[in-house]
């Protein structure tokens, strides 16, 4: 059958709440799917000490895609679930493209007083499998006045070329056809040089795409003062992490920011997740906005070839966001999911 | 005499224009100074191939302070002046504190529609001599499909402790007494661990200071959505570079952002400079805003013990900024300098 075989990792905190709404909208979109839920996250960690057992990882490889809510809980030592579960999934499943649209929908309030939707419409293509996230580094004489701690960014021609190529292709498919490399070439000279040379070289193959370069500090500023400068951005794992949170802030908040951890070579399933975390402070109260997860479902549908269903979900979200402007009362997580699902189905 | 012995490096582009106004205001403040100008920058590089000769560096060590405009010119290979001149000065003169206030003055337009001056009033204490700026790293098989490029962040207990201690002292001297460490401890585990442990340890000595931690991605967002969270921030060299550009954006633009490269141990002169660059596109046209340089002069005066004169300069800038709101025409670089100098003198 052409059923989508979907692994679902609701995770911790609001993760379970938003994922339920994402699945509701997926069903409403009329694309058949079979979902299997995985209890990875804080609960499993406490029950068994496991974060991501090898057998589970192997099983996950067999799905068409993964939908993830959020991981992280105050009861688990900081960083453990982030690294041993979330980042491990990204690395093991070779999610070398972390795709994060930054788009201001009409009707959405932005902290930028003067920004209009046409000013904020970009896609950040964040590298997902190397750079400062490689986990390389060490410490010597830890805890003494002579301690030294290092942290290494590892960048390969192989890893940089494939994500830059993907970004060029994305840019080529968009009306503006503009690609901006964001890095810090004047300080991080070795890594920056590899990134800059790679963009230069591929720009010959993609002559229709205009290329540009921006230091990460300036780019961070321009996200706020001149977001209309950007169309597609390609950048490393750490700069992409920072830029996409700035992007979420200017495009109406982390409740709307979707992402896809994509393996374009399709050697393993891609994983879609909201950019936000597990937000333990509001968990279980029905206060979380499921919109980021629903938009992540739209990305998932698009990735699996269901472009029409994807567009329908995105349009339903856009319509819902317009209506929110004039709403008198805040809706619960479930109510937002219901409303968007109804629009998709209707 | 108690004359300030000041080395002046106007540098490139708008650097020369803004420095002239900074010196004008310094004179108006009534603190006697003797200034010696150094022609470091693009011109010297083209004439002699030199960026920062050792003899000049040695001479610079003899001054009470350095005022720098901006370096960098399109005619010089990218990064050369930034690294071999600007960063070399910071490293050689052991400017381990890069002090960058982020403050919204009344009357100043911010891109954040709803922010008021009391919401944005913080100081970023950026480490200035190590971390990812150490220049460590390398490349192998450069230019081939098998290239690997590394970039290393070097962090020492010595280097981290001294800047964290400085930040605690700053926080203690401010009404809110709050210090936030910004890092990425969940990913950069070795470096993050050293930074977090150092803050924890020193927090015992500074029991009156409330401490907090924020990942760099979340902090970048909060600069936009909740800047009132922050009082004093301490962070590494690269995160500080990014955060202070976001700070400049939200606090009214790079034309107002001042900085001090401070050697608190006073083993070498500190260096004060606007955060902005040489802006070759508007150089020589009298369009640059000298306010960032003038505020840097206020920091210089404060550093050298002239607290009253420093406060007078800052007040003159504050008054000028209020008046700008209702101005009909844009003033030139020189006119702004004249107006602020007149307020300081009067
Ligand atoms: C939780 C954390 C490890 C993660 C990251 O840094 O990539 C998150 O911030 C994100 O952006 O998805
Ligand atoms: C010019 C560059 C090397 C410098 C830096 O990265 O520190 C600049 O961005 C700054 O913030 O002063």
CATH topology of the domain at 4-109 and 252-345 in chain A: Isopropylmalate Dehydrogenase
Q: Output the CATH class name of the domain at 4-109 and 252-345 in chain A.
A: Alpha Beta
> Into which percentage range does the β-strand content of chain A fall?
15-25%
Arithmetic mean pLDDT of chain A: 97
Order of helices and strands of chain A: EHEHHEHEEEEHEHEHEHEEHHH
The number of distinct helices of chain A, counting runs of at least 4 residues, comes to: 11
Tell me the greatest interface.
Answer: A-B, 64 and 64 residues
Helix content of chain A: 40-55%
The rounded Rg of chain A comes to 20 Å
Bound molecules: 3-isopropylmalic acid
Q: Low-confidence parts of chain A lasting 5 or more residues at pLDDT below 50?
A: none
Cofactor (chains A, B): Mg(2+); Mn(2+)
Keywords (chains A, B): Manganese, Metal-binding, NAD, Oxidoreductase
Pfam family, one (chains A, B): Iso_dh
GO molecular function (chains A, B): 3-isopropylmalate dehydrogenase activity
């Amino acid at each position: 059958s052409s059923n989508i075989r979907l692994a679902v990792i609701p995770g911790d905190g609001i993760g379970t709440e938003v994922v339920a709404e994402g699945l509701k909208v997926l069903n409403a979109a009329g694309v058949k799917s079979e979902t299997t839920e995985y209890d990875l996250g804080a609960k499993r960690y406490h029950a068994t000490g496991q974060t991501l057992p090898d057998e589970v990882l192997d099983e996950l490889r067999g799905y068409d895609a993964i939908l993830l809510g959020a991981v992280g809980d105050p009861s688990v030592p900081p960083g453990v679930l982030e690294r041993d579960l979330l980042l491990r999934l990204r690395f093991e499943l070779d999610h070398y493209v972390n795709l994060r649209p930054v788009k201001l929908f009409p009707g959405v309030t932005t902290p930028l007083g003067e920004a209009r939707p046409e000013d904020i419409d970009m896609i950040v293509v964040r590298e997902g499998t190397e750079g400062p996230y490689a986990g390389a580094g060490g410490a010597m004489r830890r805890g003494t006045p002579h301690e030294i701690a290092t942290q290494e960014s590892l960048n390969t021609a192989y890893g940089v070329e494939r994500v830059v190529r993907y970004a060029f292709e994305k840019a080529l498919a968009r009306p503006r056809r503009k690609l901006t490399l964001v890095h810090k070439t004047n300080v991080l000279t070795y890594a920056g040089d590899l990134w800059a040379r790679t963009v230069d070289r591929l720009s010959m193959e993609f002559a229709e795409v205009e290329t540009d370069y921006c230091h990460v500090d300036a780019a961070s500023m321009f996200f706020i003062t001149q977001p209309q400068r950007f169309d597609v951005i390609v950048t490393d794992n750490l700069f992409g992490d920072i830029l996409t949170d700035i992007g979420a802030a200017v495009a109406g908040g982390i409740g709307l920011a979707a992402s896809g951890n994509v393996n374009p070579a399709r050697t393993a399933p891609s994983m879609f997740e909201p950019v936000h975390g597990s937000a333990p402070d509001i968990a279980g109260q029905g206060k979380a906005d499921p919109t980021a997860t629903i938009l992540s479902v739209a990305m998932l549908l698009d990735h699996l070839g269901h472009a029409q269903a994807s567009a329908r979900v995105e349009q339903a979200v856009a319509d819902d966001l317009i209506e929110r402007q004039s709403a008198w009362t805040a809706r619960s997580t479930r109510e937002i999911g219901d409303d968007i699902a109804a629009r998709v189905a209707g």
